[in-house]
Amino acid sequence: MYNKGFDSSKRDFIRKCLLVSAGMTCMPRSAIINGIRPQDQNIYRKLALFQEETPRGIMCRICPNECVLREGEVSKCNNRRVNDSKLYTMAFGNPCSVNIDPIEKKPLYHFFPGSRAFSIATAGCNLVCLNCQNWTISQTSPDKTRNYDLMPDKVVSEAVKSQCRSIAYTYSEPMTFYEYTYESAILARKAGVRNIVKSNGYINPEPLKKLCSVIDAANIDLKSFNESTYLKLTGGKLLPVLDSLKIYKDMGVWLEITNLVVPGWTDNIDEISKMCKWLNRKCSR
Ligand code: SF4
After folding, report:
1. What's the CA dihedral at 130, 139, 56, 236 to 10 degrees?
2. Exposure on the CB side of residue 259, measured as CA atoms within 13 A
3. Structure confidence at residue 45 (pLDDT)
């Protein structure tokens, strides 16, 4: 019995690894999903949420970068621009990556294990991590990628058609395609499909609380537990990420955390120990 069980879980493990690696190798900019192809297209623009007029220009209050932009300028995350004194997102309905992934690839290990997640990303990110694996889409703009034509209602219908139990907003940084994530998530909830974010947690409290009302699970990257390493490695600050973790937890979103150990950067055992103690105090039940 033991051997049989062992063989079966070993087979299961290998099967899942193959699924994950297949997903990784086909993280596409040109794959065909459910017959939908990426195409060169005009970029649809949508009025951005959380914008505010200031004497220096239009401020975006979505993330702690709080970009202030003048006419024609593009945001730090490469997907917001000011036109006619209003801030628009260029990251709406035009994902450059669309995939059907095993949920373990997000990675989420305790949220509908074994299920599939309809996974989307647009170009752009609010951090500039030196070790970014997806830099070809995170450090560019939606008008420089080949994109799928996929408005929120289509995202949901494709997820249902593909028998995915969830939609994952992932690969680049969903907080920078906030409006697309939010509107898709509302429709997904109505269709009984769960919503997952894979995020760097770099978002201000107010937009995060609004988003949490429609998000079921999150995997957040806690990239270091040292303020100065955070800044050098990612261009962002540690404290806003810690605040975000507490908000996800307080608002009842299923939370899993990724801490990537980068030799020479984030492998200090004392810092890892401090991080674990903090997580145990603030983010465990
Ligand atoms: S989401 Fe983008 S535009 Fe808004 S503050 Fe962050 S980096 Fe700037």
Report:
1. -30
2. 19
3. 86
Q: Which segments in the chain show pLDDT lower than 50?
A: 1-30
Q: Does residue 82 line the site of ligand 1, with CB under 6 A? A: no
Within-domain flag for 123:
yes
Is 64 part of any domain?
no
197 is in which domain, residue-wise? 26-40+92-282
pLDDT for res 5: 33
| Nearest one of 241, 246, 248 to 223, comparing CA atoms | 241
Tell me how many domains the chain contains.
1
Query: Does the C-beta of 66 come closer than 6 Å to ligand 1?
Result: yes
pLDDT in tens, 3-27: 333 344 444 444 444 444 444 433 4
Identify the CATH number of the domain in which residue 152 sits.
3.20.20.70
Residue 103 burial (CB < 10 Å; 0-12/13-18/19+)?
buried
Give the integer Cα–Cα distance in Å for 177 and 155. Answer: 14
pTM: predicted TM-score of the whole model, two decimal places: 0.87
Residue 65 Cβ < 6 Å to ligand 1 = yes
205 lies in some domain = yes
Is the C-beta atom of 211 inside 6 A of ligand 1? no
Does residue 176 belong to any structural domain of this protein? Answer: yes
Cβ neighbours around 216 below 10 Å, total: 20
pLDDT score for 19: 43
CA–centroid distance, residue 59 to ligand 1 (Å): 9
